[in-house]
């Protein structure tokens, strides 16, 4: 095995990973893709109708799909801002998802960095602070959803009254798309900042401490040490964290389902799940939505890759 | 003003004392070199000056101010690290310019100074390499450039030339000396290279086991070592030592006697053990005894191993007939052995019986118990001053 | 000039005003200056501000404590609230702010009486452990290849690994559901009927695959940062490449490996989608904790207090365990991992 | 890892409530025993596979098993709301072909028609599921408060009041008693809104989704009537209840509902009522059992069906108007993939016996599908529900099922979203219903184009 | 059998050629030292032998087998790394014993050998330290111990003594020589220390810019360098060079002339440019001309800078009157400058006018165009062989 060329050796090492992925990802993916090219069939044994090409995709993009909320429903107009929403912003899964992903990832990155920085310091009881900060990440999504659902249940929790009294929310925030969006955002940040924190912490911990000595002698203030040494050196870890958080956020579902519900805050995965398990058998549409979702996520990840390709020590 | 003053610096790691009550003062613009065996505390002392290590006890002053406890960045020092420690994520240009960019110099200025520094360390054209793509010596030169580009008041250099070849070393040596002159900077330097220490320094500080042994100009350390340790440490190859006993009118070792008046030595008296020291270049073949002002009586010896160095040859001499043991294994301790340096053309070969003489004016005497120097140069036997000496080729 | 003691006192939070005379252990070399300060009659706040300017480390320290407390509060408050929900007796779930509506610690026992919650926990634990092991092994190999070897197709293959994370898990459901319900003769000795459904494999397999890309990326990142020299040294000393991975690279990437492990473990422990659909929800059939928690939910009523209690029971011990394990892993991998 | 039930064990899915009564300790009565008593082969044992109790999740679980062709479970307990889609996908056994004629005729003649409809194949009318129990929507109210406020509710039980009267009474009673809430119901955007609470209100106003009760189970070629006036009126009335005097409301209807109802489901709406903090509540029969117990409100609990919008005679569509009770409930369906189909059919056969139905009612409080049996049950065993036998009967007479075709889940989502947004005032009722009508039309048209 | 043979080894990093077509053979049990300027490809060549770098072209043989492409662990080599590369997560004992434990030696044996190796590198009592807790030199010694503990057939040592002080270096030198003898191991060694290269090696390989310049026994490299590069590189301080032109009967430089018969030189003819080389120790004060067998005519010079080294003094001489430029800045290039080494007692001081002579038997002549050596030692003027030379003190 040692005699193998570097290339052959690399492929050998990748074999188990790709075997697993083939079984659990690539094979189902191809089947799903084939599904997405056929017609829906709500009755009969065969869940799929005839081959209809990309018709399902066209329906999805034009707001004509058999979905409770639309993936995308915009039209072009001649007057500013030249785009017209067929349905309001908060009812278009694509926009809701994008807004959610962008805001949550940015917030989580900032907060995660703060948490990691705190955890990287030496102080008594650090272990317990670490437990505390990791705890939200350990909470199952159902529970995470339940906490925030109950908190903003008008009769049960204090959240609605509190927020209403300071004029931020309406009386029934979980039924209001904008309010519910914010609640879900907060819930997600609460839980997932810990994910960022853990990864960033690992990055911080593996920075060679003697580099800080050099920087200190060279005259770097703490902020400069952070900017010039810490940040670039944890950048690879940070990028991984952001990459995966972005993909996760783009697929948000469980949290929405267990708080406000997909009706109030429809996300892309909401559409897939509702189409897949909604009872009316529209698997082809579901598959097409899933693929479209993957496409959107893929585009965004492509953006990441292009943006960060040149980062030193980066992943590519 | 960049005088550096250490006051009773002690640094302990757990039970281990790395630096033991060192006090010294480096004048403004002075070039002081720390030498000493591996692990004697050189780097640690440097680190206390830089502020990277807080001394367990003692105070550090730079200029007129106490800086103990001050952050490294506020001490106005630049440092070349023994382990080099380049930033792996920055290319050579960024590594060198790091300190300048922190200080918000304008780009023009930064580029100018970086290029100048790169020139000095002969790294032109490598500015966009990453550290991982460079050879050991090239990395070390980046480390030097990173320090000199900043023109600080105090330079701390921890074995900056360890990975460089002889020629480049000579070049760097002159460059550093020029810098020293031009910037009038205070430089504290660590090296294990005798030539560096001798040629560059205003003073050499010899450390051993965390303690300061001697701090003096290079030739003084060489010619008048304060104790056995310094005598043995400075000079390569090392000084020969022979244990002996003071007797009336002289000194007796196992293999030869030296005339001398013990009464003139303070602190010891007849009967005491002393150690005689003589450098390899002060051991001569008997046939050249005439050219010495004050040679000792001839001593019988047998050449054991010859080590040709190109410009000179080291001859390991056995004084007593000793069978198995070759001197080369442990040249500096036993009294029965003597190392002599001769010019390459001299026709000495291995296993030859010889007579050698020592240059009395170059002998050193140490108290065997304390190791303290008693006397440098035994001049009392005969009158004439050792005049101009010469070298024949 | 500042007092050196200020820098070395780790307990100095910088936020308590101190008697200025106490700050001069040297007996007040700057008596005059102090006198002037006293005349200015500065309040503690100004004093603190002045000290801070003199000595920015104090500010960082203070900022650090503020940040730590802020993070502690924000992460822990929902848990506190969850605890209050758990302590509120059934059916009185109203207007809970800082205290429970009534006090019913019995919920923490009831949790186990209503359903065998501990079995769900155990199942989840085993499944998470197995998945984490699989993920770490497979991802370590892949991470080594991606992070330390040059080969054609590296970047495309790496992106291909990610693709699984592009898809909503629901997209995989139908084919995987078929697959795991298909009977394979070679599985019969293991699972009885030859299908993977209702076995731990039905969860371990997809969950491993789903969380593997993250681990691969983490490990790739960390492995690629280990200097080549160390691997070279190990190989000259006589290890194979794999040996070097095991003995040098993994231990040196300990923070990354441990983090990948923790993230995977917890993610699997709490996974929603496949956990829900790949077993029949029976504790004896390897149903995970999620099914346990959902089991407190009825058609028209939800036992919120039990769900809350179950969550606390399910989460806190695991989180503590994981953190302690992580510390052990890190120190174990970095120190004396090779002591045999 | 070895698992799987013994050869004579029939595995049936059920929620924990049903599970609790199937088996018992020692000699205590149990459904299993009743089944054996009703003639089930003594070798055949039922094993319950508990599933998560929320209906949507249970559908997913059933779907996962049936799509994969997996058995056990041999018998699936299916919500009457989503049995038909499975029937249409040939994922159920045709009971009309498999059950003995005797049993079939008993079922056809005695079971509540409305629930039977949810278990039949829409085209052939063959029976594919055996109703285990129906459920009906009731309006619960506090007789004591209403009477204190000066209203006579003695006739309400079988003769529900007009909405207007109901609203005034509730409003006055709330004020009188100083309660926080008047009438609590479910209006969150979920299945319960479209299938039930809104369906009831709409029906009471004489409206319908698809032009009356005759078109409930045949998707495709049927009128869409959600944008008709009665539907709009129903929404406007609900908005009056929620918002009081405001846009898009109906004059003369007092504000009696707390605004949070638009995010409430059964449990949240029951809580305040259960806590004595509301005058009236719309809920299922389990709520009667819970709040009618002696420890709770006992005799002070009044139960009726939905108040009346327009009388039946004035209703625009067939079978609407007057009072209404939404139909819920669960059917038992045999999996076509089962290895123990015969045994499973035997179990179903036994479930169709009156003793078993009574046992289920007595032990679990689940209404028997043959509602005549409610009167026969001993009140001691059954609890408070027995007290309201006449109301149950009235409810069954006015039961209104959801249009549970294979498209219903999809259409339901459209309906509850639109209705909820109209309730909230996010859309005007007319606009919301017009949009909904279009969406439903498109959904219906899929049937024709795909030739389903 | 552990002969090491490199056949046309080339290693390119992108456009950069680190090693350029090197072929050489190291005999079984031979000690070969690589020297050359920083970045010349020494470490890279070592790595190809170890198997850490696959050569872009060429083959590597160890013993009788080709090992190109073989894993490092199967080549039977041990290596001391230039960057030390200790495993930071293991203590000293674990670092040293790493290779042994991999080979499943029993604990007893491992401990015995580790202790022995630690003894050799003088690290007794530090076995449970972590690398981060050690000084630079201590770390380097751990690296050496890690290699020698394994007793392999081939040792590769990349500047193993760079961080050690002179005394420890001498000790380690003798230890390594002993090891070499006892194990009869083949050793390939990289150093920038002339003394090490001269004393330890059977042969020295001089590299420059990736290319092999000369491989020969140390004294041959010193006395008969094949080209200008080797002449200038070997020897410290470096050889003096003077550009000149061949004329009828001699050689003319800017400042002095040398008698010689150009007809006896092959490849060059009268009128060609040549470079004259003379080592500092072969430049003598005129007054000692008599002791030379064959001195040149006296040359006028002026002492510029004196660099006392303890055992000798370097005198920088200016041949032509040159105002501003101090020779010390760039001693080895210009023809107008000359570096002379004298004994410390000679009374030369800075700024003195002197006459010097060169030892004709030690002069070197190089083709100025190609840099190839033309002649070592100009003996044709007068008959007598240079007999015994002596050194006077
Ligand atoms: N990974 C790399 N990528 C690009 N260039 C490299 C790389 N490694 C080495 N080089 C270059 O190859 C040349 C030879 O390097 P090598 O390390 O062999 O030098 P060396 O002789 O060991 O020098 P030193 O004495 O400074 O250690 C150097 O110019 C170096 O910059
Ligand atoms: N972090 C530490 N913990 C424990 N001991 C240490 C630590 N750092 C250094 N030492 C010890 O302190 C002593 C002095 O170390 P220092 O690095 O100053 O030596 P040095 O003189 O620079 O040696 P060298 O020439 O080998 O670099 C050494 O014996 C070393 O082992
Ligand atoms: Mg050091
Ligand atoms: Mg090198």
Count of individual beta strands of chain B: 21
Strand tally of chain C is 0
Our measurement of the CA-to-CA distance between the termini of chain B, rounded to an integer number of angstroms, reads 49 Å
CATH C-level label of the largest domain in chain C: Mainly Alpha
Distance between the termini of chain C: 54 Å
Taking all Cα atoms into account, the compactness measure Rg of chain B is: 24 Å
Looking at the structure, the CATH topology of the largest domain in chain C is MetI-like fold
Domain count of chain B = 2
Mean pLDDT across residues of chain B: 83
Q: Which CATH class of the largest domain in chain B?
A: Alpha Beta
Shape of chain B: globular
Second CATH tier, the architecture of the largest domain in chain C: Orthogonal Bundle
Tally of domains of chain C? 2
Q: How does the helix and strand content of chain C classify structurally? A: mainly alpha
Please indicate the percent range of residues of chain C in DSSP E strands (runs of 2 or more): under 5%
How are the strands of the largest sheet of chain B arranged?
6-7-8-3-9-10
Query: What's the shape of chain C?
Result: flat
Low-confidence stretches of chain C: 1-40, 336-340
Describe this structure in words.
The complex is a heteropentamer, with one copy of chain A (316 residues), two copies of chain B (393 residues), one copy of chain C (340 residues) and one copy of chain D (452 residues). Helices cover 66% and strands 4% of the residues of chain A. Chain A has 316 residues and is mainly α. Chain A has a domain of 179 residues: MetI-like fold. Chain A has a two-stranded antiparallel sheet with strand order 1-2. The longest helix of chain A is centred in the N-terminal third of the chain and has 31 residues. With 393 residues, chain B is an alpha+beta fold. Chain B has two domains: 223 residues, Rossmann fold; 151 residues, Nucleic acid-binding proteins (OB fold (Dihydrolipoamide Acetyltransferase, E2P), Beta Barrel). In chain B, strand 9 and strand 10 form a beta hairpin. In chain B, helix 2 packs across helix 3, helix 2 packs parallel to helix 4 and helix 3 crosses helix 4. The relative contact order of chain B is 0.11. Helix content of chain C is 67%, strand content 0%. In chain C, 51% of the residues are buried. Chain D is of the alpha/beta class and 452 residues long. Chain D contains 20 helices and ten strands. In chain D, 64% of the residues are buried. Chains in contact: A-B, A-C, A-D, A-E, B-C, B-E, C-D, C-E. Chains A and E meet through loops of A and loops of E. The complex binds adenosine-5'-triphosphate (2 copies) and magnesium ion (2 copies). One adenosine-5'-triphosphate sits at the interface of chains E and B. Chain A: It is a multi-pass membrane protein. Chain A: InterPro entries: MetI-like, MetI-like_sf. Chain A: This is Sugar ABC transporter permease. Chain A: Keywords: Cell membrane, Membrane, Transmembrane, Transmembrane helix, Transport.
């Amino acid at each position: 095995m040692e005699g193998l060329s570097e290339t052959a050796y690399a492929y050998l090492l990748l074999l188990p990973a790709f075997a697993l992925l083939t079984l659990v990802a690539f094979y189902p993916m191809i089947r799903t893709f084939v599904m997405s090219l056929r017609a829906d069939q709500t009755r009969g044994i065969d869940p799929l109708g005839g081959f209809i090409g990309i018709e399902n995709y066209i329906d999805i993009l034009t707001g004509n799909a058999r979905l409770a909320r639309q993936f995308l429903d915009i039209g072009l107009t001649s007057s500013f801002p030249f785009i017209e929403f067929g349905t309001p912003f908060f009812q278009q899964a694509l926009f809701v998802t994008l807004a959610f992903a962008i805001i949550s990832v940015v917030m989580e990155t900032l907060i995660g960095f703060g948490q990691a920085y705190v955890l990287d310091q030496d102080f008594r009881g650090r272990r317990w602070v670490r437990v505390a900060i990791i705890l939200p990440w350990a909470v199952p999504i159902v529970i995470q959803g339940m906490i925030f659902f109950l908190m903003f249940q008008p009769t049960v929790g204090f959240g609605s009254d509190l927020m209403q009294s300071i004029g931020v929310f309406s009386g029934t925030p979980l039924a209001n798309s904008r309010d519910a969006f914010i609640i879900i955002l907060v819930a997600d940040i609460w839980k997932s900042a810990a994910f960022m924190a853990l990864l960033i912490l690992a990055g911080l911990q593996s920075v060679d401490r003697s580099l800080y000595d050099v920087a200190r002698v060279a005259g770097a203030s703490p902020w400069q040490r952070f900017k010039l040494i810490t940040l670039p050196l944890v950048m690879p870890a940070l990028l991984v964290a952001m990459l995966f958080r972005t993909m996760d956020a783009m697929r948000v579902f469980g949290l929405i389902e267990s708080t406000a519900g997909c009706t109030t805050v429809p996300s892309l995965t909401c559409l897939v799940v509702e189409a897949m398990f909604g009872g009316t058998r529209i698997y082809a549409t579901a598959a097409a939505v899933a693929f479209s979702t993957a496409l959107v996520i893929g585009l965004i990840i492509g953006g990441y890759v292009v943006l960060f390709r040149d980062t030193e020590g980066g992943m590519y | 003003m960049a005088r550096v003053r250490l006051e009773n610096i002690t640094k302990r790691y757990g039970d281990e004392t790395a630096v033991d009550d060192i006090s010294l003062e480096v004048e403004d613009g002075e070039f002081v070199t720390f030498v000493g065996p591996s692990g004697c505390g050189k780097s640690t002392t440097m680190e206390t000056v830089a502020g990277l290590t807080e001394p367990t006890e003692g105070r550090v002053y730079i200029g007129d101010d106490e800086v103990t406890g001050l952050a490294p960045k506020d001490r106005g020092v630049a440092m070349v690290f023994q382990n080099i420690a380049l930033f792996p994520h920055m290319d050579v240009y960024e590594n060198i310019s790091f300190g300048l960019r922190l200080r918000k110099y304008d780009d023009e200025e930064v580029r100018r100074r970086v290029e100048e520094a790169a020139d000095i360390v002969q790294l032109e054209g490598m500015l966009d390499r990453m550290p991982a793509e460079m050879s050991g010596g090239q990395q070390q030169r980046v480390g030097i450039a990173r320090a000199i580009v900043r023109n600080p008041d105090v330079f701390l250099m921890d074995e900056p030339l360890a990975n460089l070849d002889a020629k480049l070393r000579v070049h760097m040596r002159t460059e550093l000396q020029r810098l020293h002159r031009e910037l009038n900077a205070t430089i504290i330097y660590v090296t294990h290279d005798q030539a560096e220490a001798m040629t560059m320094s205003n003073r050499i500080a010899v450390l051993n086991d965390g303690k300061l042994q001697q701090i003096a100009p290079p030739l003084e350390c060489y010619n008048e070592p304060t104790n056995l340790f310094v005598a043995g440490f400075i000079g390569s190859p090392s000084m020969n030592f022979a244990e002996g006993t003071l007797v009336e009118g002289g000194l007796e070792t196992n293999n030869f006697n030296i005339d001398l008046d013990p009464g003139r030595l303070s602190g010891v008296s007849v009967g005491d053990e002393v150690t005689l020291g003589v450098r390899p270049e002060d051991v001569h073949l008997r046939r050249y005894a005439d050219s010495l002002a004050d040679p000792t009586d001839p001593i019988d010896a047998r050449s054991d191993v010859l080590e040709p160095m190109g410009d000179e040859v080291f001859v390991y001499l056995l004084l007593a007939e000793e069978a198995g043991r070759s001197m080369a294994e442990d040249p500096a301790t036993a009294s029965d052995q003597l190392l002599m340096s001769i010019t390459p053309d001299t026709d000495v070969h291995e296993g030859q019986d010889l007579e050698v003489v020592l240059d009395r004016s170059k002998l050193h005497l140490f108290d065997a118990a304390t190791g303290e120097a008693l006397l440098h140069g035994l001049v009392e036997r005969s009158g004439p001053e050792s005049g101009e000496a010469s070298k024949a080729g | 000039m500042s007092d050196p003691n200020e820098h070395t006192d780790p307990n100095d939070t910088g936020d308590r005003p101190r008697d200025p005379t106490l700050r001069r252990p040297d007996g007040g070399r700057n008596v005059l200056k102090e006198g002037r300060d006293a005349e200015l009659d500065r309040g503690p706040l100004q004093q603190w501000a002045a000290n801070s300017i003199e000595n920015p480390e104090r500010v960082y320290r203070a900022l650090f404590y503020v940040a730590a407390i802020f993070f502690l509060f924000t992460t822990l408050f929902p848990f506190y609230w969850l605890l209050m929900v758990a302590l509120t007796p059934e059916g009185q779930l109203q207007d809970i702010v800082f205290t429970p509506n009534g006090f019913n610690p019995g919920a923490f026992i009831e949790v186990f009486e209503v359903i065998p919650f501990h079995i769900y926990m155990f199942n989840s634990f085993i499944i998470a452990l197995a998945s984490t092991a699989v993920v770490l092994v497979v991802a370590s190999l892949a991470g080594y290849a991606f992070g330390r070897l040059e080969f054609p197709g590296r970047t495309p293959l790496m992106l291909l690994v990610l693709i699984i994370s592009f898809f909503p898990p629901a997209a995989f459901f139908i084919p995987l559901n078929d697959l795991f319900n298909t009977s394979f003769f070679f599985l019969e000795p293991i699972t009885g009927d030859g299908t993977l459904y209702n076995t731990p494999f039905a969860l371990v397999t997809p969950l491993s695959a789903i969380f593997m890309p993250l681990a691969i990326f983490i490990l790739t990142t960390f492995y690629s940062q280990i200097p080549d020299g160390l691997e070279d040294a190990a190989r000259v000393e006589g290890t194979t490449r794999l040996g070097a991975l095991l003995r040098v690279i993994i231990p040196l990437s300990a923070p990354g490996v441990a983090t990948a492990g923790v993230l995977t473990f917890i993610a699997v422990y709490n996974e929603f989608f496949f956990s829900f659909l790949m077993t029949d929800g029976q504790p004896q059939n390897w149903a995970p904790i999620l099914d346990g928690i959902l089991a407190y939910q009825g058609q028209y009523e939800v036992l919120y207090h039990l769900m809350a209690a179950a969550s606390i029971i399910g989460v806190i011990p695991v989180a503590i365990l994981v953190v302690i394990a992580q510390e052990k892993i890190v120190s174990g991998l970095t120190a004396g991992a090779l002591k045999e | 890892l070895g698992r799987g039930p013994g050869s004579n064990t029939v595995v049936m899915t059920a929620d924990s409530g049903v599970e609790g009564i199937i088996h018992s300790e020692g000699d205590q009565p149990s459904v299993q025993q009743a089944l054996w008593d009703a003639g089930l082969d003594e070798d055949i044992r039922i094993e319950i596979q508990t599933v998560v109790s929320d209906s949507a999740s249970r559908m997913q679980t059933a779907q996962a098993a049936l799509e994969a062709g997996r058995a056990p479970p041999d018998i699936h307990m299916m919500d009457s709301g989503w049995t038909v889609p499975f029937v249409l996908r040939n994922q159920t056994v045709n009971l009309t072909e498999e059950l003995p004629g005797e049993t079939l005729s008993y079922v056809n003649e005695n079971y509540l028609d409305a629930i039977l409809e949810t278990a039949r194949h829409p085209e052939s009318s063959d029976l594919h599921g055996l109703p285990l129990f129906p459920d009906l929507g009731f309006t619960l109210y506090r007789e004591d408060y209403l009477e204190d406020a000066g209203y006579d509710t003695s006739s309400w039980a079988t003769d529900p009041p007009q909405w207007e009267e109901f609203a005034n009474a509730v409003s006055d009673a709330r004020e009188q008693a100083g309660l926080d809430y008047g009438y609590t119901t479910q209006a969150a955007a979920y299945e319960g809104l479209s299938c039930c609470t809104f369906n009831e209100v709409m029906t009471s106003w004489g409206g319908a989704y698809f032009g009356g009760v005759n078109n409930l189970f045949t998707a495709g070629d049927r009128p869409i009537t959600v944008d008709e006036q009665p539907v709009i009126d129903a929404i406007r009335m609900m908005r009056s209840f929620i918002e009081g005097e405001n846009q898009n409301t109906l004059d003369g209807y007092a504000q009696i509902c707390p605004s949070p109802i638009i995010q409430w489901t059964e449990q949240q709406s029951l809580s305040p009522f259960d806590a004595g903090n509301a005058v009236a509540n719309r809920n299922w029969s389990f709520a009667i059992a819970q709040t009618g117990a002696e420890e709770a409100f006992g005799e002070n609990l009044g139960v009726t069906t939905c108040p009346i919008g327009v009388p039946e005679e004035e209703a625009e569509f067939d079978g609407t108007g007057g009072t209404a009770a939404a139909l819920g409930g669960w059917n038992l369906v045999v999996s076509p993939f089962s290895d123990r189909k015969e045994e499973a059919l035997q179990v179903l056969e036994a479930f169709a016996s009156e003793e078993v139905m009574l046992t289920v009612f007595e032990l679990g409080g689940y209404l028997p599908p043959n509602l005549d049996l409610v009167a026969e049950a001993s009140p001691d065993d059954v609890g408070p529900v027995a007290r309201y036998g006449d109301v149950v009967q009235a409810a069954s007479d006015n039961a209104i099922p959801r249009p549970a075709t294979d498209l219903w889940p999809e259409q339901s989502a459209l309906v509850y979203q639109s209705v909820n947004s109209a309730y909230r005032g996010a859309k005007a009722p007319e606009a919301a219903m017009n949009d909904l009508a279009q969406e439903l039309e498109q959904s219906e048209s899929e049937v024709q184009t795909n030739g389903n």
